[in-house]
Structures are given as C-alpha cells and as structure tokens.
Design goal:
It is a single chain. By secondary structure, the protein is mainly alpha-helical. It folds into 2 domains: about 50 residues, 2-Layer Sandwich (ATP12-like), CATH 3.30.2180.10; about 150 residues, ATP12-like fold. Helix content is about 55%, strand content about 10%. The chain has a 3-stranded antiparallel β-sheet. A hairpin with a 2-residue loop joins strand 1 and strand 2. Helix 2 packs across helix 6 and helix 3 packs antiparallel against helix 5. The radius of gyration is 20 Å and the shape is globular.
Length: about 240
C-alpha cells in the first residue's frame, strides 16, 4: 500500500492583515499550524513569503520545500510555549562556543583559526560586551559567569520568531557568537557557515573530500540561510 500524501486543495493563495499581524489564506480558509492554532505572522513580508511557498506547491504538498512555513509553525507551537528553556539552551553555547576551542596542531590550522575567529571574538567584546576566553584542545573551559549572564540576557530581547531563527543560526554552526553576529548584521549566513567549517575544510584539503559529509554540510548551509531569511522577513517594515 502506498503512503498517503496530502494533496493540494486550494486554487488561490493570498494574505491579509488581522489583529496581531498577518495571515495566509488558501482560497477563503486561513492557514493554521498543524496543531490548529492561528498562524499569525508578525510582518506582511513574512506572510507573503509563506504564501509563495504554498502557491509553489504542486498536486502533492511537499513540506520539505516550505522551510519558512515549518519555522513559523515551530515558533507558534513550540518556541512560544518553551521560550525560556530554548533561550537557556542557546545561551549554553556561549560557554562552549566553537570559536573558543582551538587546535593544538598543525601550526597552519592554529594560525587559520586565529585569523578567522579572533576578529569575531573582538567583535563580541566590542558589540556584545563579553570577553570569551580561548583554549587549545577539547578540555572544557570555564567562561566568566558575568559574560555568560550577559549573553543570556541578550536573548530576552528576542520575540518567538527571532528566537526560532536564532536557534538554527546557533545550533548548526555550534556557536552563539556566530548566530548573534548574523542577526546583528555583522555576518551573513554563508560567511557564518564558512567560519564554522574551518577545521573540516582544512582536513578536506589535506585528505580529500567526502561526498556524504559534503551533502550534510550543504543541508546545514541551506538551513542557516533559511533561518537568516526568517530573521530578516520577521523584521521587515
């Protein structure tokens, strides 16, 4: 027996302003989350982007081709109900930030990490007010508690859509500093992704590429770009 798949049931897709924001309308039916909650979006730009995802669907609905819709569902159903816990989890990346853990050898990789990552830590010091320490190797390094508290406090200023976007921008590269650099406009997602891949690209240059690993990395890059787009659209206008 073939697996059941949801089929397109609408002809037209539009958006409209409602109390609290904007929504997507399929024919005359307002789009809802999978849990049947109202899918209210903070900006017209984000609503239009979701509408484009739904308009682009063929006879069969392909959720994997609608990253913004999936993210909006997550913001409303998950992040809104677990905001503090998710913010706490993301803040913990500051204590184990990728940029703070450096190679012990070879010298070329050590220098490459310093040239690539030290400017980000300088930016964090100037823009975020945190002075994260650097170590070599993987033994856990205790960061200043005041710095970690400042990083956690920054996350209180996010709304649910912003925190949803930040989630992928932090967890995929493994760095709170890289994620915050993207949402503050210091980097774009592609540059953040490249900076998170210093070790992997160095090893690939030495030993050759792995097609499966490259495919997984490309999926992370695409997801980070989608998260950056969610961030910008949720603040447009």
């Amino acid at each position: 027996m073939s697996e059941w798949k949801a089929r397109r049931f609408w002809k037209t897709v539009s958006t409209r302003q409602v109390e609290g924001g904007h929504e997507v309308v399929l024919d005359d039916r307002a789009l809802k989350t999978p849990g049947k909650l109202p899918l209210i979006l903070p900006t017209a730009a984000l609503a239009e982007a979701l509408a484009e995802e739904w308009q682009a669907q063929g006879d069969l609905i392909q959720p994997q081709t609608m990253p913004l819709t999936r993210a909006a569902n997550s913001a409303i159903e998950r992040v809104s109900t677990q905001f503090a816990a998710i913010a706490d989890m993301l803040a913990e990346y500051g204590g184990t930030d990728l940029l703070c853990y450096r190679a012990t050898a070879p010298a070329r990789l050590i220098a490459l990490q310093a040239d690539s990552w030290d400017p980000l830590l300088d930016w964090a010091r100037a823009d975020l007010g945190v002075d994260l320490k650097v170590t070599q190797g993987v033994i856990p390094l205790a960061q200043d508690r005041g710095d970690l508290a400042r990083l956690r406090a920054l996350l209180n200023d996010f709304d649910v859509f912003g925190l949803t976007a930040l989630h992928d921008l932090v967890t995929l590269p493994g760095s709170l500093i890289l994620g915050l650099a993207v949402v503050r406009g210091h980097l774009d997602a592609d540059r953040s992704f490249a900076l998170s891949r210093i070790d992997e690209e160095f090893q690939a240059a030495q030993w050759g590429r792995d097609a499966e690993a490259d495919q997984a990395a490309e999926a992370r890059r695409v997801s980070m770009n989608s998260a950056e787009r969610l961030w910008r659209l949720s603040r447009a206008g």
